[in-house]
C-alpha cells in the first residue's frame, strides 16, 4: 500500500528484551489511492487487516493500546 504520511498521532515507549526500550512513534496516514486498501503483513507482524470498531473490540491487544488510541483520537470508526 502506498500512503501519505501525516501528522504524529502519538508516541509510546515499550520495554524490550535485554533491558532495551523501544520508542515508538505512530503517524496518521492515508492511502494515496483511496480505493487501494490492500495491506500485507511485514516481518514484524503475523497478520494485518482493516477492522471497524466492532471487530476491534474482539481482538487480543497489547495492554493499554485501547486507552492510548482513544487519547490520540485514533480508534477505528463504527
Please provide a written account of the structure.
- The protein has two helices and two strands; from the N terminus they run ββαα.
- With 78 residues, it is an alpha+beta fold.
- It is 15% helix and 31% strand.
- The chain has a two-stranded antiparallel sheet with strand order 1-2.
- It starts with a strand and ends in a 6-residue tail after the last helix.
- The chain has helices at 53-56, 65-72; strands at 3-15, 21-31.
Termini separation (Å)? 23 Å
Shape: globular
The parts where pLDDT drops under 50 for at least 5 residues are: none
Total count of domains: 1
Query: Rg, please?
Result: 14 Å
User: How are the strands of the largest sheet arranged?
Assistant: 1-2
What's a concise summary of this model?
With 78 residues, this protein is of the alpha+beta class. It has helices at 53-56, 65-72, and strands at 3-15, 21-31.
SSE diagram, text form:
Blueprint: E1 3-15, E2 21-31, H1 53-56, H2 65-72
Antiparallel strand pairs: 1-2
Short key terms for the protein model shown above:
two-stranded antiparallel ribbon, alpha+beta, 31% strand, 78 residues
Amino acid at each position: 500500500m502506498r500512503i501519505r504520511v501525516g501528522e504524529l498521532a502519538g508516541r509510546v515507549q515499550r520495554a524490550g528484551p535485554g533491558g532495551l526500550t523501544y520508542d515508538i512513534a505512530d503517524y496518521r496516514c492515508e492511502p494515496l489511492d483511496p480505493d487501494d486498501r490492500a495491506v500485507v503483513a511485514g516481518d514484524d507482524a503475523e497478520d494485518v487487516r482493516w477492522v471497524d470498531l466492532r471487530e476491534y473490540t474482539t481482538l487480543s491487544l497489547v495492554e493499554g493500546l485501547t486507552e492510548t488510541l482513544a487519547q490520540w483520537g485514533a480508534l477505528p470508526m463504527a
